[in-house]
Amino acid sequence: MRIVIAEDDALLREGLALLLRAEGLDVVATAGTPAEFLAAVGEHEPDVAIVDVRMPPTHTDEGIVAAGEARRRRPGLAVLVLSAYVEQAFATELLAGGAGRLGYLLKERVGRVEEFLAALHRVAGGGTAVDPEVVGQLLARSRPDTALSRLSPREREVLSLMAEGLGNTAIAERLFVTEGAVHKNIRSIFAKLDLTPTDRADRRVVAVLRYLEDTARR
């Protein structure tokens, strides 16, 4: 198993490398930035990438974005994401998508070596590994989102494509409709979900998160 580690905290990065090498695993490269990580993936063609969610320069979602790009460049790459705390949007998407070769663990789980290694091997073998704390928080949230039941089949279809990350033009092409029709559907989605233009949060993001949360509960 060839592994690349992407973690901006040098101490944790080197600690992970030492741990995995002590277990006889082949850590072929470590990286402190998304650019270094992608370069390492291209050079070493690893089987698994261990990636921190939050990386430079903004420490928001750079790790997730880089992991997605790495999987695009190297189909079949297994990715185990590490986070200091529960990133509910990513966890919901992971559970809703049911994608294989993906894992999400809290960093505190690394200290429980057997659990960490078991998750790593499960992801490398084509499975999914989700931290028990993440699952607990997601299951604890929740009454059904009845507002979503007000959406028409076409509006729900548009929302599902939004959840895939498609922009309005791409959605129009996928559904063989005009971009104006997509705009109209999205306006209706916002209205039915009671998302007003004055909301401080990004309405598109909130709508997608509510859709993913509802899908994960089904």
TrEMBL record:
Pfam families: GerE, Response_reg. The lineage of its organism: Bacteria, Bacillati, Actinomycetota, Actinomycetes, Micromonosporales. Residues 2-122 form the Response regulatory domain. It comes from Actinoplanes teichomyceticus. SUPFAM superfamilies: C-terminal effector domain of the bipartite response regulators, CheY-like. Keywords: DNA-binding, Phosphoprotein, Transcription, Transcription regulation. One of its GO terms (biological process) is regulation of DNA-templated transcription. The modification 4-aspartylphosphate is found at residue 52. The keyword Transmembrane helix does not apply. The keyword Phosphoprotein applies. PANTHER family: TRANSCRIPTIONAL REGULATORY PROTEIN NARL-RELATED (PTHR43214:SF24), TWO-COMPONENT RESPONSE REGULATOR (PTHR43214). It comes from the Bacteria. This is LuxR family two component transcriptional regulator. GO terms for molecular function: DNA binding. Residues 144-215 form the HTH luxR-type domain.
